[in-house]
Amino acid sequence: MQKISIAMATYNGEKYIKKQLDSILSQTVLPDEVVIVDDCSTDKTADIVNDYIKKKSLNNWKLVANECNLGFKENFKKAISLTNGDICFLCDQDDIWCNKKIEYVTSLFKSEDVIGVSTGFYVIDEFDNDITEKHLKKGNYSFGNKSFKKSVNKIPLKGIMRRNISPGCTCAYRRSAIDIFLKSFDGSLPHDYQLSTISSALSGYYYCNVPLNKYRIHSENTLGVKPVEQSRDKIAEEKLKLSKVISDTGKEGKRLYDLCHKRYDFIKNKKTLEVLSLWINPEYRKYYSLKERIGDILYVFRK
């Protein structure tokens, strides 16, 4: 039997935290451990969690209170590092899990090929009502830019490098990906994006096109579902950092890191001829879409 862990990061989440805890406790398959790390909340979040654990006699649940505020990325890393399971689910403080989430996702991990899984999600408001965001494709509950016809879809490295397709609250990862993540973690990048990219670099990242999470959108969200607008050089820098995270996963990771390093240098310093020379590189054509490649040329020509 594979041991199941949940890593939750909390900060000033008193308004919704109990509903999330209830949804975990209502799972058809219960986790072997739940690690909750509170990042110096100034409200009653930590007290609510602590009382919940005591009242429910949850001996396999643990609350850790930080002595200083780490920020959500470092806080999630800490929570993940404190888990011991073979499979670790990431958990936000303000969502609601569908009661078969753990059962469904862990069934996918019965295949040794599966390293990471992200799932679809519903979007709810602060009153638990379903809402529809225009930038989410109808019938596709992910960040993905295409509709998935299959219920379970393998995501290649070139796919996840172009865009993170799911929020971390929908994700679970095998220990092999977590070990690499803890070793190569970059605090400037989203923790879930790093883990999903590592899983894909290990040829084991899958998107399950079934909504198993109720993702709450409200005014206090750290991140929403809309992509963040960035300049081309900043995006290139992010891809360079992301490729460095996976540079030790194998030959493909190393080649991608070398490519991203060159591309970032060429774009940042607006080296027109060098950017044009990338077009004969098969790796460049593989990992960057025609739209991205044309965008690179247009960017460096605007000197």
**Helical amount:** 25-40%
Number of helices: 12
* pLDDT < 50 stretches: 137-142
Rg over alpha carbons = 20 Å
Task: Give the overall form.
Answer: elongated
Structural class: alpha/beta
Distance between the termini: 59 Å
Give the biggest sheet. 9 strands, mixed
Give the topology string: H per helix, E per strand: EHEHEHEEHEEHEHHEHHHHH
Please report the total strand number as a whole number: 9
Measured by DSSP, the beta-strand proportion falls in 15-25%
**Mean pLDDT over the full residue set:** 91
Q: Any overview of this molecule?
A:
The chain is of the alpha/beta class. It has twelve helices and nine strands. Strands 1, 2, 3, 4, 5, 6, 7, 8 and 9 form a nine-stranded mixed β-sheet that branches. β2 (33-38), α2 (45-55) and β3 form a beta-alpha-beta unit. Mean pLDDT is 91; it is low at 137-142.
